[in-house]
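2 proteins. here.
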Amino acid sequence: MHSTELLEVAETAARKGAKCLQDWVNEFRVSEKGRADLVTDADFASQKAIVEHITTHYPDHKMLGEEGLTRHEGDSEYRWVIDPLDGTSNYVHGFPYYCVSIGLEYQGDLILGVVYDPNRDELFSALQGHGAKLNGTPISPSRIPSMDQAMLVASLPVGTNGRDVSIDRFLKVLPAAQTLQRTGSAALNLCYVSAGRIEGYWSSNLKPWDMAAGVLICREAGGLVTSIEDASFTIENPSILATNGTNIHSDLQSLLTT
């Protein structure tokens, strides 16, 4: 299957999903999956548009998505991993830091990633072995070598409290970094590492759809992605550390695991 065609399908699907999000901005209803874990009509509308577009081209492909999307039947070795709205809380509050994220695996390996931010009309994309791009222009991480010069971002679990290990980690890194943020969109955070806008990002509570596309984009841009604990990584593991690949990576890993 031609990779360029797959990428075109993914990019169009992402734009269609994002259009649904923007169309629903002033009309959505909100429900809660858990404490502060929001889901909206917009999530479902976006996912429906994405799935319909991909299925039109590849009806036998498997799928995994945030809003109850699982399609395992068939013999296809392709699996799409879809987040129709990454940054739901931001979206609900009108904070313009959210996106559509679409990754694709072949035989279990990530081969394609697309993340589209409709607020900035920024489309991040990557094909395995072909680098990463932003609106068609190649991107790469910064070369900032130390945390005291770095902008870092962390994800904290939904409904976290002061006793959570993630809070301890955040507070450990806070004095070591030039600046440390919590932004609310894992996919965009990974893309921002890829484009040199931030130097590092970590989380211990992600789902596959939160990171599939962004991980490939980061790797193809030249960033380094591991788990927080060691050099291993899989999108089935909620632990991720992504950086520009300088000494920041090992320094962060040391702080986060001690």
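next one coming up
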Amino acid sequence: MYAVVKTGGKQYQVSEGDRLRVETIKAEAGSDVTLDEVLMVNDGETVNVGAPLIANASVSAKVLSHGRGTKVTIIKFKRRKHHRKQAGHRQNYTELQITGINAG
């Protein structure tokens, strides 16, 4: 059984026991969260697709940790113009473990 959920402006295919990193969720580490925006649920026999969301469906997850991703370096360079600009960015994330899928 798996589901497609939307959180942080992105879509993720999840099944029970999966660990994934999503955009930051305001919850304490160790707490449980519920992802209500479920777009699709597949239970092995039938596929339930929402239009756009499935009513009464949810995915429960446990917050494992919060952190920051690896640094992405941005370099802008124009030859012969004495122009060079360098910047870096580290994206915040929340690591989740999926504990259950409620098909609704």
